[in-house]
Amino acid sequence: MKLNGKWITVPQDLGDIVPVFQKTWNTKKKIKKATLILTALGVYEAELNGKRVGRFVLSPGWTAYEKRIQVQEYDITEMIQHDNALAVYVGKGWFRSPMPGWATDEEKRVINKKPCGLIGEVRIKYDDNSKDVIPTDESWITGESAFRFSEIYDGETYDATFDLKKTQNAILLKWPVRTLIKQEGEEIRETERVAAKSIIHTPKGETVIDFGQEVTGYVEFTVKAKAGERIRIQHGEVLDSDGNFYNANYRNAKAEIMYVCKDGLQTWHPHLTFFGFRYIKLDKFPGQVKLDQFSAIVVYSDIKRVGEFCCGNEKINRLYSNIIWGQKSNYLDVPTDCPQRDERLGWTGDAQVFTKAATYNFDVEKFFGKWLHDMKAEQREDGGIGVVIPDYMPMTRPSAAWSDACTICPWEMYLAYGDTEILKSQFGCMKKWVDCISTTTTKDGLWTGGEHYGDWLGLDSSEGSCRGASRDDFIASAFYAYSTSLVIKTGNVLNQDVSLYEKLYSRIIQAFRTEYPEYLTETEYVLAIQFNLAENTQKAADDLAKMIENDGMQMKTGFVGTAYILYVLSNYGHSDIAYSLLLREKYPSWLYAVNKGATTIWEHWDGIKENDDFWDPDMNSFNHYAYGAVSAWIYEKAAGIQPIESNAGFAKVFISPIVDRRLGWLKASINTKHGLIFSGWTIIGDDVRYEIKTDVPAIIVVDNVKHTVNKGTYTYWGSLKL
User: Is 343 among the residues known to form the active site?
Assistant: First the structure.
């Protein structure tokens, strides 16, 4: 993207203080249109004539900065006056904060040396069609701001009594402009507010505000105070077993607000950072504390809700709500693992297991398009894909099921939205990834010799391990097959020659069946069946069902197996067991966390144990959306709404609900590019009443009878089989 402006920076390092860049000018003629174009190295907020510009928060967002920096455009026509003053605050953001939290001291020193930078211009078109451009250059002035500290993990400090007295001219910064691109992703927005629900005075004497819902964003407070009085607020997800404030699981992230008050009534919230929290602790707060002084501002990418679900089981409805909140909390410009601790990274494994579910809940086409372009930009020379994107862990080797996001996510986007552009854009990346596996494996036709996360957090793991008992090479080889199959499918959609990959796929299938004639864990069964690697998928599914029953009707799967286990069971005649797993309330289960008061999805099935102790605080997020992938099964199997590959994007839909008496009734809908699709059923005695509404042609299956219909509303009666 071409700009007249030049990169500018501060003349000397301000340390943790957020600099402000300022420009003033006069407008003497009548304006037809005025546009502000900006981006920064860090995150910025712009004010024109004392008013905030635009609704984008934490702009320019998070990209692979060395390769791609998004540039924003704002219509400021109505904000222009005769005398104009533009101020832009540039915080550290994801670019200059010490991320990830476990970075070494040397790595943190390198990050601290990264420059603060701003580039942009004001473009003005007058009524007489003459034009002016006001670019960033050395004529801009800069100085300290009231933001005395701002950083992603540790929070923000603001001094409302600060008065800017000393300024200097900005200096030019040597930074490439070739990385500048137009805004691709969704803007990050303040999307909703959650009112404070209660004030808690804990056994330790702490004053804690409970918002009743875990969110990602920040707290806004109103207070009447004297100049110089201080406010200190800490953030947490849960209370401990005694009812005291707890945030040890944030690890090294301080996650706190420091505010120095001015005189009188004032309202404030952080501007250049964010937090994941349900509770806040008021370490310092002047005056009597009242609920109406606080609200939580929810912040996430401006993705639009497209899916709705409810049923006759209120705990499942709460689970679904938790899934929605988990997605909103972790879809803040990149699909992160969690929004609260010293991590908040774009883990590819979490992203790919949830991608299908994500498309049913929200319109994420633009959101993923931008992130996948970053993935392509970050692909390594040998074709490897990092386990986080942007790749803040470049020394980590690719991992099966994580790096395979580069094939799985584009394909799921295509199925959901039917646009071949995402496949065209990512096809080269997909092929290079499969080629990377082929050239680095130690055994032809399999993926062996790598380093993997395995079935992360599988419950069949050995004592003290986070990795399930499934064999790493088994999982890797299964995903090698799956990614290769997706390259073939993508090539066929794009009319590309994929004959070499077809031959490779045949070799992988043969090698896999020879190497792995038996399956040792639930996850191994699931992958062999889901990816069509088992010679007899029905027998394997039957054996899996018996294993689950022998395990006490419980899952022992981790991140890799859980996303597919209900699909495998329902696809092979074991929907009763799938429903039993969904509806299970004892640990381990989805509803265990619901019964423990969860308002989002947990990282661990037992983040809070049955005796109310915590899982190890070193890795215990209470807002970790990956296990929420079960909502895809709810849409596609329980409600029966499924896209058809040959009519991608729901141009035509397959609807075949799977009913279970234990739910009583179900309603689900999704707004697709082609219109609304609704599926509902109600159990009446031993009969089932189906209600289908579709704006697209559909194949509806009830009691094994197929009905091919055009768009419209349809009612069927069937018998209860379960």
Answer: yes
